[in-house]
């Protein structure tokens, strides 16, 4: 009896090993690169093209920032309520923002995305990818150039849009927190924690059009690094600009040369999001893992994941983190407007360097 049980166990173990081997089987592409699915081989030449011709050979540059922004502005163009009611509410990550650029770039919330759409267009034309797949893929590859970033998931198989997304599906920087959370819930049942996680993208972001008098103004002091400074610096003392003038959506920052969006300022201080916001302050691992999960969810809005091909293993491994959480020079804990009432703001060192202004992000 014992022998039969042992034999059964050995047979089961062998079967599991065979199954595991099948699951991890790799394909060697004609280029010599290895991936888990032959369909993903087509992506390696695309990586070479976009790294050379958009990202300056692998830099975390302005086109990286703009490519990541475009992934969101395309994907968030979907309304579950409208689609359920039989009124077209957008197809999510379907490439509509580029395919129908003459329409969607005129939406107020999409101001400025025409530049990265124009930059990506000739590269899309050189490769056999849908526009929907390319937009999300380019964003993920761009992020892989940024020190401290997670290795994002990528998929193939999205269908291109046949009509433009409706207006008013992209949140605006002057929206209040309730409106922002409702928009994300309608787009894809994003929780308040997932909304905060998606805004990790602002760690490498800059604004050209919120205040056109100061183009290339970053959202934190380290826009070339995928780090936690954004979540620290949005909690520093600040004042909302009054009225609806040219500064609408902008918040005064104590750091010269830095811009803060009103929406980020409010989310950092709202009881529904403040503690999650603070949780990223000195937690690089959580920053990476939360954004990776939220990006994965966002990037397939409008598609079923089981209908897509997972090509995540073609994404380069990002450089290691290159900074540690700190308060900017000249500032102390007293300069923090803490809103989380459940946990104290972490103790952080202050940058010993002289007080300087934050340099604008140079155009690509």
From TrEMBL:
Residues 343-364 are annotated as: Disordered. It is an enzyme of class 1 (oxidoreductase). The active site is at 73 (proton acceptor). Keywords: Calcium, Disulfide bond, Glycoprotein, Heme, Iron, Lignin degradation, Metal-binding, Oxidoreductase, Peroxidase, Signal. The keyword Cytoplasm does not apply. Residues 1-21 form the signal peptide. Belongs to the peroxidase family. Ligninase subfamily. This is Peroxidase. The lineage of its organism: Eukaryota, Fungi, Dikarya, Basidiomycota, Agaricomycotina. The gene is PGVII.
């Amino acid at each position: 009896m014992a022998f039969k049980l042992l034999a059964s166990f050995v047979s089961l173990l062998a079967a599991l090993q065979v199954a595991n081997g099948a699951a991890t089987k790799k394909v060697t592409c004609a280029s010599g690169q290895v991936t888990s699915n032959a369909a993903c081989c087509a992506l390696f030449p695309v990586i070479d093209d976009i790294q050379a011709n958009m990202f300056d050979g692998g830099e975390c540059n302005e086109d990286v920032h703009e490519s990541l922004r475009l992934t969101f502005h395309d994907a968030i163009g979907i309304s579950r309520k409208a689609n359920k009611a039989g009124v077209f509410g957008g197809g999510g990550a379907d490439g509509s923002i580029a395919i129908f650029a003459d329409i969607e770039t005129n939406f107020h919330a999409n101001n400025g995305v025409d530049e990265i759409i124009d930059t990506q267009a000739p590269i899309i034309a050189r490769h056999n990818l849908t526009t929907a797949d390319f937009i999300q893929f380019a964003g993920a590859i761009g992020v892989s150039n940024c020190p401290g970033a997670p290795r994002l998931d990528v998929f193939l198989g999205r269908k291109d849009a046949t009509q433009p997304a409706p207006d008013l599906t992209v949140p605006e920087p002057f929206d209040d927190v309730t409106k922002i959370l409702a928009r994300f819930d309608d787009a894809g049942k994003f929780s308040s924690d997932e909304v905060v996680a998606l805004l990790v993208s602002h760690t490498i972001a800059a604004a050209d059009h919120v205040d056109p008098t100061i183009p290339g103004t970053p959202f934190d002091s380290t826009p070339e690094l995928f780090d936690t400074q954004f979540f620290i610096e949005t909690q520093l003392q600040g004042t909302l600009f009054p009225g609806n003038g040219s500064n609408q959506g902008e918040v005064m920052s104590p750091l010269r040369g830095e811009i803060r969006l009103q929406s980020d300022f409010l989310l950092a201080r709202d009881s529904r999001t403040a503690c999650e916001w603070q949780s990223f302050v000195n937690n690089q691992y959580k920053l990476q893992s939360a954004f990776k999960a939220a990006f994965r969810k966002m990037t397939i809005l409008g598609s079923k994941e089981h209908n897509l091909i997972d090509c995540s293993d073609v994404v380069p491994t990002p450089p290691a983190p290159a900074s540690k959480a700190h308060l900017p020079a000249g500032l102390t804990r007293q300069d923090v407007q803490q809103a989380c009432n459940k946990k104290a703001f972490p103790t952080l060192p202050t940058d010993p360097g002289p007080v300087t202004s934050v340099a604008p992000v140079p155009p690509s």
